UniProtKB/TrEMBL annotation:
Main location: membrane
Protein name: Threonine/serine exporter ThrE family protein
Source species of the chain: Brachybacterium rhamnosum
Keyword Ribonucleoprotein: no
Span list, region Disordered: 453-486
Ranges for domain Threonine/Serine exporter ThrE: 280-402
Localization, UniProt: Cell membrane
Membrane topology per record: Multi-pass membrane protein
Signal peptide per UniProt: none
Domain Threonine/serine exporter-like N-terminal: from-to ranges: 13-252
Positions of transmembrane segments: 144-164, 176-192, 198-218, 238-258, 270-292, 299-318, 324-342, 349-367, 387-405
Listed Basic and acidic residues bias regions: 476-486
Length: 486
């Protein structure tokens, strides 16, 4: 095989592996596209087109007008909640475009990521999500017995979900079974001690089941114009939520048959008198989610800190403004903090966003809506609609925070910052979105673009090419056609 062809296959192999890994682990379509283009541009390839859909990444390269395009398609595997892998893919990307890793080293590391053992065993993952459930119950004002019950119920749900997933059972059914098990534990707790409020167990388990869904990525894709991917992710989130609803409704029917009251009380929503207790509960939820989602150990403290801040802030703001705006402001600050922490710690911002918004999930409103559907359908629908408003407020606030913060941090960083952009419609828009290569330089001052051996045209990057990649240069503007300038 000729050298040029071999290198082309190698670059595409690296780009496809990284693109699939990011998409599988929850990255937005704009971030996947920008990352793939960074890899190909750093390899000296122009005229590369990237198409990202819900479960597929397509890359096409046209050397010149007389050549046939070279295209590769890679289907993304089932989405997982493994932020250690997401961080590993971003590390490989940063190492390659900064020149610390050669092409073969980067390919080897990217290929090895799916085979690496996760940081935490299944027992720790179940314990982490159990801790998340216990923290959620604590934030709702539960006593120690209810907190223990919520912890055990959440851990059991995750264990069952993992077993079913390994047996290739669709997640819709595992979500439904999880909701049914949550009500079952609540019924058992209510039968043992009628003076307790077992509904808190159900609400805590709903929060655990909803944590980590792709709503953040779906909202980012929707507001930035990546509608195909957004539609798929929104439908996936809705189907998994419907699975939870079906399981909880089935459990409520069993509760009525055995005569156990699992109705929610007026004190169940966040109304703790002590903000300190709520902050501690938020930190516990963030820590539990981090362990359950395979967040590397060096990031756990930061995730817990962001979650604690969002829990306390949203509680304080809820007394001043409507709950939707309170969680919107809190999630906006979570997005800003995620970009800053991602830049400082060289970590994916999605890790801090997902962990930080967990305390804001409207589990109590969802449960109220499900209870009300049995007696008054309009009231139940109104509660579920309010829960949907809060969910949209969380996602929209987090995306806006990342968008604004990344404009500041991204000016001096070429990785570890989210690329929130509309789809590329012109070459100039692509250059503006991917970034200026002239600003990105290694430790020795050398531009972070690796020479290419693809064709005679791309043997090396000439100064004129660097000017073309710089959208602020006069030469780059002269090469832009009048329609693009308009």
């Amino acid at each position: 095989m000729p050298t040029d062809s071999a290198r082309l296959h190698a670059v595409f192999d690296l780009a496809m592996r990284v693109g699939e890994g990011l998409l599988t682990n929850g990255a937005a379509a704009s971030e996947v596209t920008a990352t793939v283009l960074r890899i190909t541009s750093s390899s000296g390839l122009r005229n590369v087109a990237v198409q990202v859909t819900f479960d597929e990444v397509t890359i096409s390269y046209l050397p010149d007008e007389l050549s046939a395009p070279f295209t590769r398609v890679r289907a993304a595997s089932e989405r997982v909640q493994d932020f250690a892998r997401l961080a590993a893919y971003e590390d490989v990307t940063f190492g390659y475009i900064s020149g610390d890793l050669s092409l073969e080293e980067a390919r080897h590391q990217a290929a090895a990521i799916p085979q690496e053992k996760p940081p935490y065993r299944l027992s720790l993952v179940c314990a982490g999500f159990g801790l998340l459930g216990g923290g959620a119950a604590l934030s709702l004002g539960a006593n120690w017995l209810v907190v223990i019950a919520a912890t055990l119920a959440a851990a059991l749900m995750i264990l069952v979900d993992t077993v079913l997933t390994r047996r290739r059972i669709p997640r819709f059914y595992s979500q439904a079974l999880g909701g049914f098990l949550a009500v079952g534990v609540a019924v058992l707790l209510g039968a043992l001690d009628p003076s307790l409020n077992p509904s808190i167990v159900v609400v805590a388990c709903i929060i655990v089941l909803l944590a980590g869904l792709t709503s953040i990525g779906a909202m980012q894709d929707a507001v930035t114009g990546w509608y195909v991917t957004a539609a798929g992710r929104i439908l996936e989130t809705l189907m998994l939520t419907v699975g939870i609803v079906a399981g909880v409704r089935g459990g409520l029917l069993v509760a009525d048959l055995v005569g156990v009251d699992v109705s929610i009380s007026s004190a169940t929503p966040v109304s703790l008198a002590s903000v300190l207790v709520l902050v501690v509960a938020g930190a516990v939820m963030g820590l539990g989610f981090g362990v359950g989602a395979q967040v590397p150990m060096r990031m756990l403290a930061a995730v817990a800190l962001v979650a604690a801040g969002s829990a306390g802030l949203s509680h304080l703001l809820s007394d001043v403004v409507d709950r939707v705006y309170a969680v919107g402001v809190a999630s906006f600050l979570v997005g800003v903090a995620a970009v800053v922490l991602g830049d400082r710690m060289r970590a994916p911002t999605l890790v801090f966003v997902m962990g930080g918004v967990v305390p804001l999930v409207p589990g109590s409103r969802i449960y109220r809506g499900l209870l009300a559907l049995g007696d008054a359908v309009p009231d139940g629908a109104l509660e579920l609609f309010s829960a949907g408003e809060i969910a949209i407020g969380i996602a929209a606030g987090a995306v806006l925070g990342q968008l604004l913060a990344s404009r500041v941090v991204g000016a001096r960083q070429i990785a570890y910052t989210p690329m929130i952009s509309v789809p590329f419609t012109t070459m100039r828009r692509r250059r503006l979105s991917v970034g200026t290569r002239r600003r990105a330089r290694g430790r020795d001052g050398v531009a972070l673009v690796e020479p290419s051996t693809m064709t005679g045209e791309m043997t090396a990057l000439s100064p004129s090419m660097l000017e073309e990649l710089d959208p602020t240069s006069a030469a780059g503007d002269r090469r832009t056609d009048p329609e693009e300038r308009a």
